Amino acid sequence: MDCSAHGKPRKTRAVKVGRFTIGGSSPVSVQSMCNTDTRDLKATVDQIRRLEAAGCEIIRVAVPDMEAAQNLGRIKQAISIPLVADIHFDWRLAVEAVRQGVDKVRINPGNIGEKDKVKEVVRACASAGVPIRIGVNAGSLKALKENPKPRWTPYDWAKQMVKEALDEVRTLERLDFHNVVVSLKADDIERTLMANTLFASKSDIPLHIGVTEAGSFLAGTVKSSLGIGLLLSRGIGDTIRVSLTEDPAMQVRAAYEILKSLGLRRYGPDLVSCPTCGRCQVNVGKVIHELEERIYSDPQLLKQSEGMKIAVMGCVVNGPGEARSADFGVAGGKGRGIWIEKGKQMKVIKESEWVNEVIRKIRSSK
Ligand code: SF4
Predict the structure, then answer these.
(1) Which of 9, 13, 263, 303 is a Cys-bridge partner for 4, taking CB atoms 3.0 to 4.6 Å apart?
(2) Tens digit of pLDDT for each residue in 258-272?
(3) Is 280 in the pocket of ligand 1 (CB under 6 A)?
(4) Which letter, b or e, does each residue of 349-365 get, where b requires 16 or more Cβ atoms within 10 Å of its Cβ?
């Protein structure tokens, strides 16, 4: 993992998930989870393809019943990124998911039940070379069954989360299974930070990090950026998922923006736009929105625009200066704007043509 913006990355073991590796020296990968019914092949495949286009690298689907488990093979055949089966309670679903060819299984061995059942899941995963993510959530700790309203400090919660994760790890290790990723999620930053930092001090198992049930787009993105960003800035975290009550494609975008702002990954352009003010006589918001829609749904444009700084400014007060420091951009006037490339004013173009001109420029640049 590159670490230009933060502390030394924690050394973790490498875990292969299909063609991706989590941990080791691999870059921090971006995951998301479908919100479709896994039994609905078309809806699920369509959503995964859209997420692939947005740059999602590993996709997880919920497997609530056998019909969903038996659909996994067909989903896998129709997509090109690794597929993860998210399973609770029923060990048979995990075994079927592995039989269907998934690349990783997310379980909480604590809710899979007796040792024999966990053993069956481990046996299936071991013989197929499929890793297991042990996902521990603060809200579903085993200790809460006996004591549903504990008077714990955030640190007590974190310790309990780490204890339960390590108990599960040991259960798998006793079965000689080491192909493991762990996640420790809470719905607040404090416990998420404490639990992951504590776990990282005790194990070399790669960590899937995120703040669970983070919330709406704005609140959730802020919370996730802080939680995930602070962990990454301490060198902790091998793969990330931003949980938002929002289109999963936006979760992918938000995840990359976090990684991009820490200098850990490159992803699309750096789009600079002004907040607009009373001087503005063009619709900067609409232009930026259309540009994002076009770029982030097209893998080729996404790749071609990587690292470019593109400015869309509302007027000629600050516009030309900002656009000059970009690779190219436009500074608005009344329904039109000055097109600027590498600091030079090139031409005047109509507002209705700005988006197309930016797209043309990206396509012709590389
Ligand atoms: S660039 Fe012009 S329109 Fe945009 S915020 Fe600055 S002064 Fe206002």
Answers:
(1) 263
(2) 999 999 999 999 999
(3) yes
(4) eebeebbebbbebbeee
Would you say 327 and 321 are in contact if contact means Cβ atoms under 8 Å apart?
A: no
b/e map 68-79, b = 16+ CB within 10 Å: bbbbbbebbeeb
User: Is the minimum distance from the CB of 36 to ligand 1 under 6 angstroms?
Assistant: no
Please, are residues 49 and 297 in contact by the beta-carbon 8 Å criterion? no
Query: Is the CA virtual torsion 305, 257, 231, 140 positive or negative?
Result: negative
- Every domain of the chain and the residues it spans: 15-261, 270-365
Do β-strands 344-350 and 336-341 pair in parallel, antiparallel, or remain unpaired? antiparallel
CA–CA distance, 19 with 273 (Å, rounded to integer): 37
Distant-in-sequence, close-in-space partners of 206: CB < 8 Å, separation ≥ 6? 12, 13, 14, 15, 22, 23, 24, 181, 182, 238, 239
Distance in Å from the first CA to the final CA of the chain: 27
Q: What is the pLDDT of residues 141-188, one digit of tens each?
A: 988 888 888 999 999 999 999 999 999 999 999 999 999 999 999 999
CATH code matching the domain that covers 15-261, chosen among 2.60.40.10, 3.20.20.20, 3.20.20.70, 1.20.1250.20: 3.20.20.20
State pTM to two decimals: 0.89
* Cα 318 to ligand 1 centroid, rounded to whole Å: 6
Q: How far apart are CA 1 and CA 8, in angstroms?
A: 9
Closest residue by CA, ligand 1 atom 6: 318
The pLDDT value given to residue 8: 67
Amino acid (one-letter) located at 177: F
Domain 270-365 grouped into CATH 3.20.20.210: no
Q: Is the CB of 315 under 6 A from ligand 1?
A: yes
